[in-house]
# Entry
Amino acid sequence: MGFVIKPNINSSSFHLSGRSFFIRRRQKKKKKKTRRGEMAEDQKKKSCRFWIWALSSVVFRLILISFPGNLNLSSRPEVSTPLTSIRRLAEGYWLKQASMSPYAGSMYHGSPLLLSVLGPLTVQRIKGQPSHLLCSLVFVIADILSAMLLRGIGKKLQMAYGLNARLLGLLKSSRDKGILPCGDIAALVYLWNPFTIVSCVGLSTSPIENLAVILALFGAVTRRVPLAAFGLVIATHLSLYPATLTIPIVIILGYGLDAPPIKLFLQTRSVENEESSTPTVSKQPKLKQTTRLPFLWKTVAHFLFWVLLWSLCVLVLCAFSLNKYGGLDEMFKRTYGFILSIEDLSPNIGVFWYFFAEVFDFFRNFFLIVFHVNILFMLLPLAIRLKHRPCFLAFIYLAISSILKSYPSVGDSSLYLSLWALFVNELVDMKFSFFLFCGYLGISLLSPVMHNLWIWRGTGNANFYFGNAIGYACFQIVFVVESVSAMLNHDRALKRCINTNHGEVKN
Amino acid sequence: MAADNRYEEEEEVRTDDGSPITKPRPIVRLGIFLVAHSPVFSVVFSAAGVLALLLLPLLAKNTYISENALMPGSARSMLSNRDASDGSKLVKDIKNFRLNHEGQVQRLIGKYMSEMVAEVYYQKFQPEGNQFHPLHFFSGPASYTLLGNVSCASYGVNVVGIIRAPRGDGKESIVLVTPYDFINGGDYEDLSLGIVSSLFSLLSRVTWLSKDIIWLVADSRYGDYRPVAAWLAEYHTPSFKVSDLLKCDELNTADNFRRAGTVAAALILKVDGRSERFEDILSIYADASNGQMPNLDLINVVNYLAVHRQGFHVKVEKVVSLLSSSWLKIVGEIFEAVGKVANTLNPDWKFGIPAAEYIEGSATLASSLYSQALGIPTGPHGAFRDYQVDAITLKISPGFPPDSKARQHDFFLRGSQLLEGTIRSVNNLLEKFHQSFFLYVLTSPSKFISVGVYMIAFALLVASLPMVAASLYVDGCKALTKSTHNSAENFKSWKWLDAAKQVFALHLLGFIVTLLPYFICQVPGQHSPRNRSIMWGTTSSLLLVTFVTIPGCSPFSSRLHGTNWAILKSVTISAAFIGLCLMSIINFATAEIGALLLVPTCLLAQPIKPALRSRRVKSLLGAFCSMVLVTIGFPVIFFAITKGLVGEGLVGLSLGGEFWTWLESLWAWKSATYLYIGMVHLPCWLLCVCILFHPS
# Structure
């Protein structure tokens, strides 16, 4: 009965998506014209389906919002952290109304701007409706906006993918059915991800943070420089970690969207040149090959200028709203200081709380530095290796910061998971997808059970919940590593594909 | 799960790259080896799991006192004959009181308590109806307080007395509970009051007390559990609304509910029916809801004092029918023989136990597992566990008729000395119980199996699931790659998505079916359980039919999508694995019994069509086995079979009624087993049926 695995057999069954498109295209070239009409219809159908699914996700959210008391999601440590909890925000708003500093009593640690925007909504009640209804509606709207922006990003990326494939000679036609509509997929992944739904219904402010991040990426991808700068500044202001996104956004603005490595384009071009130049007329001087893309300094400077302008605006507004309560000093101390010094050790799905509850006080500063530098260490190597794919780089940065954040929540995971879906075309051959899916599912179901065992039943202890957090971190790491290696493999496969193509042409 | 899966694919990568094949790491090779030979290993692991379960009584350890502060039995008992005669006097008075119909017995007890310098108050509560709240498992205990329509027709009155500790600061307390039916309490119930009142009269005088003592005489007219739960709810969540119950009676209970700090431990004392033996028998009940147990130290202290100081015969519950079973006897004899052989080889190996002891241990273990798996508390101590208080019920069956005065005095003396010793030990504690185990099963009052040992049996049983899932996944992927060589899409690693959609759809169906009883209970009018079960059955099957007809999520339409059954089975097995692992953390016993049913069913499920076509004996036998397993695996049939084994044969519609009542008891007690049946077992069973009839 048992079968013996022969690894060699599998290598023949490996198919690169791009290559198979190519072969398929050539076979079906003749039928193309008749199919064009069908295709348009098909696309219409697809977009119709997308809207149905998107709408149903909104309806689902609204249903869940109508009975939040029974779900009690807003008190789950997985959903709301000290930074994103709406209860704390309401508390801060009350303190401010009572002419006290909103940061008094170490309750609120978010932005003062968010306080002025969301604060009044926490107080307002529509009669007969559950409290915080207005806030929930704001979060639903933020989710919808994020999804639409993701769709926009995806459309751009899809176009770039098609264009690059054509430039490399892997696709001959202008339209290809084989390219997945990654924008639609990403938007739906964002809208239907249980993590997003839970953090939207559970009244955490992470939908708004996610919206700011996605806005920054959208601005960069569509080359709306002020918008990108605005998103980046707001995202950084809200949760500090998106500051790392400066690198990918600068690369997007400077070099352009995700593309295969520049070497490949040069290779194809040189081969084409060889073909076109007949051996008899070989004296024609060869085109000078540039091995580097031009970097658009002007756009980047423009972007930096806008970043400065927006940050100035935000700082002035914050200073204005806090001028009686300690000003900006107090704000930096209570928001960024709170994030960096990990004062709140209440359990969450990250790995920091347990460690810093255990560590001796005189080592604390040392380990704080070590833990935070972890993120910074990875920025540069990744930027060098993935500089040709800046959007993917942004996804990797967000995933890493969601693993190594001081107060992570499932809202952060929902953001990077939906960004990941933007690269379905490239990551079609990602390995361990089923393993990772089962892992994420198992961990997210296990987490409330472990929490219950520890907090309510008292038969477990902190190690139970922390073990779960470690498992979650491991799965995230495997996920990131696999995504990166799948992307690099994709590039390698492209190269091999081009080489074989040229071999065929020469023969 | 698919760690093996990983290894498998890692192997592929190496060859894909075209790089020279390097030897993979040993652990990777081990994984590949396991996955490649998964049929053999799955049989071996499952058999080892069952064997480990049978071996558990042998592996039980003797209990020991883990917390040093307890020091049971180190102090001399201070209880005198005078205290015991106080108890006798109370019992006599209650008897007279009841004969003369002089009013409420509660008042008499209250009077006695206040004579012993205790603070006394009365608490009124209402019996609670059956409510559907299985999902309350994840929330705190106090989230369901009903202040709705109150009627004076039925309510109970608890009497509570508190002795303040001379050395305490009023922040900690120990609770003594005596369930007592004030309307028609029997002679034996009076004895429990006698024992506690003897103790109470002593405790009001002693100087060593550092935790307040609360004596709760629970009105057990509406069951033992409800009054205790009502008292605990009010104790822990003060409500500032004045209940309408207060106006119901002349007994003034208003505004005097008193508290005494966090409860360190609780002892529930019951005296009932005469024992068959001459000596007094003490039975210990410890299972709270969802298989939670009190700290083992509490049981140890009581057991130590009862056996070594007071000479009670201590026992825990066991399945009586197992004691006479012949197959268990054979197994026990085999183990005994093996133990003897091992002992001759090396005198240090002492794992053999006599066959009789093995049978006793197995019967107790079976009972332990059964009551934990049901998730229904075995007594009022279950109410305490919801507030993280360790509590046990001590049920004493005296070996004498209730009117024997001479032995009654001695009985009071011994009973209250046992309680005194226990309270003295708990009184020594500086922290709450935490040293010893919370997760264990008992095989005798002085033997236990800890979580580290009993998890092995479960782990071995489910270990085969990820292996088989990985090997099926690899198989399925290969088959799909071959069949869809020229099709439009060739997602190498996303072939499981279709199968996952189907599995998800059926789990969603399971979730809806689990919630259906809530709506069925809302249907107006009185319905017998049988009718309700018919309603449930028909709505569920209608739902199933609609689900099957929706294209895309029905497993039967999978031919269109090109999914083959191997991947569907792989995803099913993964879902079962996740479900079982989750359940093993919530309630081990349920997961163990569930795994015994689900693992073979999932592993053997294979399409029967090819088996019938091939007409080979081996495949026909396999098909037959899987059919039998699937039949047994259906919850209703399994319920009928277990009922049949116990001796109540049930057929036809009465079975549905019985099953409904059983399930109703599960959700009324907030048992997670109900959720397990509806959301893990049922969907996986349905998926196995789908695989059986897969049109491959």
Q: What stands out?
A: The two ends of chain B are 27 Å apart (CA to CA).
